[in-house]
Amino acid sequence: MGRSTQGNKMFSPIKNTKVYEQVIDQIRNMIDEGTLKKGDKLPSERNLVEQLQVSRASIREALRALEVIGLIECRQGEGSYIKASFQDNLFEPLSIMFMLEGSNQEEIWELRKILEVEASGLAAKRITSEQLNELSDITKRFMNSEGEEESISAEIDKEFHYKIAECSGNILIFNILRTVAILVDHFIVDARKLILMHQGNKEILFSQHNEIYLSIEKHDPAAARQTMRTHLDFANKYKSQ
Q1: E-strand stretches of 58-213
Q2: The CATH fold of domain 19-84
Q3: What is the fold of 90-239?
Q4: Do residues 133 and 237 lie in contact, with contact meaning Cβ atoms separated by under 8 Å?
Q5: What b/e string do you get for 71-100 counting C-beta neighbours within 10 Å, with b at 16 or more?
Q6: What is the pLDDT of residues 152-193, one digit of tens each?
Q7: What is the CB neighbour count within 10 angstroms for residue 165?
Q8: What does DSSP assign to residue 72?
Q9: pTM
Q10: Half-sphere exposure in the Cβ direction for 62 (13 Å, CA)
Q11: Which of 40, 48, 70, 215 could lock 2 by a disulfide, CB 3.0 to 4.6 Å apart?
């Protein structure tokens, strides 16, 4: 359960008309300073009114805005908390931006290539023994998924890529990649079927994943980047059709 900030006075009074923006700025600053952390409970509305010296209506407006942008979650009968996880909050604004900007599938894959190639190099340098064992297990399950339902093989495939991003040690790469992957799933649902329509491509996919794993196992960043680049170029060739 998150820490409560109920009894401490940490906010400053707000004196201009842009109340909700000032509340947001103060909470963001407190997160940046480490005063508020993921999972922490915010002071009650009454406490915020006293500390910020604004109306309860203004506080409620600010809390609604913070909830909409995904910074806090309001639990009925419990109060408001800093979100413990922000991963899912990335998808909706990114997907809306994708549609409004008229972006195309190729742009998604350009971004994914940038992220995953570098993530593979970082993973080769930073992966722990425990993580390497986990990646090895995923690789073996993928290689042994021949004959399984295609949905199972596809899930193991995604798990493989997510694990490499996690092993990069960069939480931004990991979260952004997962968000981009959701977009890929959403907009290119038949991509994998298209690849597997061609005889021999399943064996190529198995081989490419194994080569990526082996390069990471050898802690060879250059080889890891190259094998991932080769794999994504191969997949993108079919997704561009």
Answers
A1: 72-75, 79-82
A2: Arc Repressor Mutant, subunit A (1.10.10)
A3: Four Helix Bundle (Hemerythrin (Met), subunit A) (1.20.120)
A4: no
A5: bbbeeeeebbbbbeeeeeebbeebeeebee
A6: 888 898 899 999 999 999 998 998 888 777 777 765 555 677
A7: 24
A8: E
A9: 0.67
A10: 25
A11: 40
